[in-house]
Write a structure and sequence with these properties.
By secondary structure, the chain is mostly helical. Helices cover 75% and strands 4% of the residues. The strands form two sheets. Strands 1-2 form a two-stranded antiparallel sheet. Strands 3-4 form a two-stranded antiparallel ribbon.
């Protein structure tokens, strides 16, 4: 019964926010395919090859790429393409940050504002299930939808680039289809979803908590409270340093806390909290080492920072559940 209820709650959330969670990234992905695809095609077909090229001491007029590039170079080009093609979908993940932020901020606030909370409370659905469905939508469903659209966008751009290159005599389709990275890169990206859930939980918990109690202007409360608190702590820290020469360690931790509760939904934020892990996410001669990125990302879960954030997120979600249960604005 609970699993069936959760399924319908997630469907409800998706239906109500289909525009921001599905149509917005779909439209942006389509625009990327059209604009970048046209740019790539124009650049390759109009400026890809010089009129006169010298190869092995022999001058070729309007040579094709397959005449210019050796076989080894063609394989390198194919390897780089399969290692970096997902990078074209970065704008979709930037949109995901905004979508998740404002979805969580309005998750409980909107139902109180439009009085629909009276209807939802009349249904046999518990407050914990309702709040958890919204958290699951923000941490799992929305990122999963963006991931699928990002992979589709990247593959479409890769096909367009290969078609444009084929008009110049360079056929990369065989090399691309034979490359394991073409198939493994989306799977490795999907494997980062559990890591994203862990690091996004404090931000999602904080935003839903603010959404549960803010009477108006939830954005100002969500951003203003931690920022003002950080400014006050920094000011006290500076004053202590001037008068006594000592500083508060709390100042450093306060910066981390504010970053976690406001920026946890940014994909890859775990690398900023684990500087030693940044060495594992370097571009290689064949593109980005996705396998290294995945392994280093999971290593971030070995640190205590990740799990302190999880505990904070769970506590804030629990507080949001209690607040929704007793909040009387209907």
């Amino acid at each position: 019964m609970n699993s069936n209820t959760m399924k319908w709650l997630l469907r409800r959330e998706f239906w109500e926010h289909k525009g921001s969670m599905f149509w917005a990234p779909l439209i942006v992905g389509s625009l990327l395919v059209v604009l970048l695809g046209c740019t790539i095609t124009y650049g390759i077909m109009q400026h890809g090859i010089p009129a006169h090229v010298t190869v092995n001491g022999q001058t070729l007029d309007h040579a094709r790429l397959d005449q210019i590039l050796p076989e080894e170079a063609k394989l390198v080009v194919a390897k780089i393409a399969t290692g970096m093609y997902l990078g074209a979908s970065a704008p979709l993940f930037a949109i995901l940050v905004g979508v998740v932020f404002f979805y969580c901020l309005g998750a409980l606030y909107d139902e109180r504002r439009d009085r629909s909370i009276l209807f939802w409370k009349s249904l046999p659905v518990s407050d914990p299930m309702t709040v958890l469905s919204k958290a699951a939508m923000a941490t799992v469903v929305a990122p999963a939808i963006t991931l699928v659209l990002a992979v589709a966008t990247s593959l479409a751009l890769l096909v367009i680039a290969c078609l444009a290159l084929s008009t110049q005599g360079l056929n990369l389709f065989a090399s691309l289809l034979a490359s394991s990275d073409l198939y493994l890169s989306p799977l490795r990206l999907a494997a980062l979803l559990p890591v994203y859930v862990v690091w996004a939980l404090p931000t999602v918990g904080w935003l839903i908590l603010v959404s549960s109690w803010a009477k108006s202007k939830p954005f100002l409360w969500a951003v203003g409270v931690p920022v003002v608190a950080l400014v006050i702590i920094k000011w006290i820290n500076a004053a202590l340093e001037n008068f006594s020469g000592q500083t508060l360690l709390l100042s450093h931790y306060a910066s981390d806390v504010v970053a976690r509760i406001l920026g946890g939904i940014v994909p890859g934020i775990w690398f900023t909290f684990q500087p030693a892990l940044q060495t594992g996410v370097r571009p290689t001669e064949n593109g980005v080492d996705m396998s290294g990125l995945v392994s280093q990302s999971y290593l971030s879960l070995a640190g205590i920072d990740a799990w302190i954030g999880v505990a904070m997120g769970v506590l804030m979600l629990y507080a949001a559940i209690r607040m929704r249960r007793w909040r009387d604005e209907g």
